[in-house]
Amino acid sequence: MSIIKINQLNKIYNPDTIPVKAVNEVSIEFKQGEFTAIVGPSGSGKTTMLNLIGGLDNPTSGQILIDGKDISKLSASELIAFRRDHIGFVFQDYSLLPVLTAKENVEFIMQLQGRSKKECEERATSLLASVGLADQLHKRPTKLSGGQQQRVAVARALASKPKFVLADEPTANLDSKSTADLLDIMERLNQGEHTTFIFSTHDQRVIDKAHRVIVFEDGQIKDDIRREVSSEK
Ligand code: ADP
Ligand code: ADP
């Protein structure tokens, strides 16, 4: 069963001046539990594609069905709620709220969802433990390394129990040790909790871990490769 089904998706920037076809007639499906890398040269449309799937940007035309629901038909406020409840985001610059601690950053979305204080605390604590930060709960982002901040971001992305997590170049600002650690955590969450991850990357070590690699070029899918990945580290 596909959780994401995309039909003839187009995104044209600046349609009235100098049009840029960032995404050009893309049709593709993603299944529950996939661990997918989107790769391709800079400017090939990876970020635009992730932003469209995540409802952060509107397509020029085409359909994006998430669990059968066409998100391009949602009103602005419905889309905000849908995003919050069903999609986890990880960005290359971590995008944590600087005045909040690690735990508060993870609790924040759950509080917006109206969950009890106790549930927010328990889930944030357990998610941060699962990304190896059990002893950093009360630190603010500036007191954490880049790798630790990105692990907070992964915990935050999972807080709402999303259907899938979108990550745009999640390791772009990490050193090789932090990259390997983050990938291990994402893989473990993928295998243990069947969390669906779709991430864009330029990093060969990240690409090597993907079970599916989608190659973008000029806004189109050039290749879509599924493969067995050995679980040995
Ligand atoms: P990638 O993530 O693969 O680097 P992007 O999705 O960022 O690719 O960009 C795809 C194309 O769309 C590029 O030609 C880029 O310059 C253009 N583009 C991206 N965002 C905008 C925007 N906000 N306005 C105009 N053009 C854009
Ligand atoms: P990435 O490689 O991660 O896609 P980029 O450097 O291509 O990052 O883009 C960074 C930001 O600049 C994005 O938010 C994108 O939408 C915007 N952008 C990219 N190209 C253009 C463009 N030609 N005009 C306006 N904004 C753009």
UniProtKB/TrEMBL annotation:
Q: Sorted alphabetically, which Pfam families does this protein's record hold?
A: ABC_tran
The organism sits in which domain of life?
A: Bacteria
Alphabetical keyword list: ATP-binding, Nucleotide-binding, Transport
Q: Which InterPro entries match?
A: AAA+_ATPase, ABC_transporter-like_ATP-bd, ABC_transporter-like_CS, ABC_transpr_LolD-like, MacB-like_ATP-bd, P-loop_NTPase
- UniProt keyword ATP-binding present: yes
One GO location term (cellular component): plasma membrane
- Domain named ABC transporter is located at 4-233
Q: Which GO terms describe its molecular function?
A: ATP binding; ATP hydrolysis activity; transmembrane transporter activity
Question: What does the sequence similarity comment in the record state about its family?
Answer: Belongs to the ABC transporter superfamily. Macrolide exporter (TC 3.A.1.122) family.
PANTHER family, sorted? ABC TRANSPORTER DOMAIN-CONTAINING PROTEIN, IMPORT ATP-BINDING PROTEIN
> What is this protein called in UniProt?
Putative ABC transport system ATP-binding protein
- Organism, scientific name: Sediminitomix flava
